[in-house]
Amino acid sequence: xxxxxxxxxxxxxxxxxxxxxxxxxxxxQAQTAIETETIMSSSIQNVVTATGTVEPVQxxxxxxxxxxxxxxxxxxxxxxxxKGQLLAVLDxxxxxxxxxxxxxxxxxxxxxxxxxEKNYKRIKELYEKNAVSDSEYDQAEYLYKKAYYAYQKxxxxxxxxxxxxxxxxxxxPIDGVVxxxxxxxxxxxxxSFNTPTLFTIAQDLSKxxxxxxxxxADIGEVKIGQRVTFTVDAYPEATFDGIVTQVRLxxxxxxxxxxxxxxxxxxxxxxxxxxxxxxxxxxxxKEINDRPIISAQALNFEMPASDSMPQQxxxxxxxxxxxxxxxxxxxxKPRIIEIGDTDGVNYIVTSGxxxxxxxxxxxxxxxxxxxxxxxxxxxxxxxxxxxxYRR
Length: 391
Fold this sequence. Notes:
Layout: H1 2-28, E1 30-38, E2 40-56, E3 59-63, E4 68-73, E5 80-81, E6 86-90, H2 93-128, H3 134-166, E7 169-171, E8 176-181, E9 188-189, E10 197-202, E11 207-215, E12 227-232, E13 235-254, E14 257-267, E15 278-295, H4 296-300, E16 321-328, E17 331-342, E18 346-351, E19 358-367
Antiparallel strand pairs: 1-19, 2-11, 2-15, 3-10, 4-6, 4-9, 5-8, 6-7, 8-10, 11-14, 12-13, 12-15, 13-14, 15-18, 16-17, 16-19, 17-18
């Protein structure tokens, strides 16, 4: 009986030890968490950023080619003007007198020309009859030609005087809006060296343009016809659209930074954009829409080696090929796909994956919380009696 009891006790102890080990291992057992992303149809966009200035498409600076005093001004800032409309008038006194003097000189020269012409014809008739000498004929011909050229000169002086008198009237060359007025009535303007600017007129403020300064490192990607969006500080919540219409070849160097001017067409139907506003420009140099997209994280993920799935040897892939791990139900399978353009974060899938499929981007092991010692105790151990008792 003693030997049998000893065997039973040893067997019971072995079972208890195995049970304790089972529950301890189960408490420390790891659970695998698989993180995936779903292939979606989206867009790839690469942008070039720049700053620029909002300007009218056509802007004309109006000056005067004659000097004088501003006699009358008929427009002011923001005035709407039509082509041919009178803007200002200079004092005409001196130019009117110059025209009158030119006309007088012309009349005098005309009288001289008529006299010399008659004298020349008379001398010519006598010369043909050998009644006068060669010198007398030459003298008459010379005086006639001199009078003729003097009269022609006086006619040209009349044209000049009329033109200068006409310059006293300043007209608008285009339909538009007066952006600036640089003179006042009574002010004297001088055109000795440079034509003074009196007014600046913008043709149509509903059609504006942005002149953006693009860095030399980015200018090679900018092309005519690319889509543009920009914002201005005056309307921080509004986004304006535009199109690249010109990439200028002339470079500008400022503090050793080389930039190129890019002209952007910017419709302005509501007249929010004003000349001179600073624009923060985004030029979409690459834009591909409605294509399957995969993240760089999914492309860079590699399945860790395990007993159930040992590390596979990577095959030689082409530059546009990548291996990804696709989750199909409860299985994870490798697949070779081909990728295209990228914005640095996402890539276009050209083949190998369809929209809606799930690819693995991460696998982590989450340990279960260890049970408390009391709850992890062996079920074969006797339970403590919670009632108070005395011997």
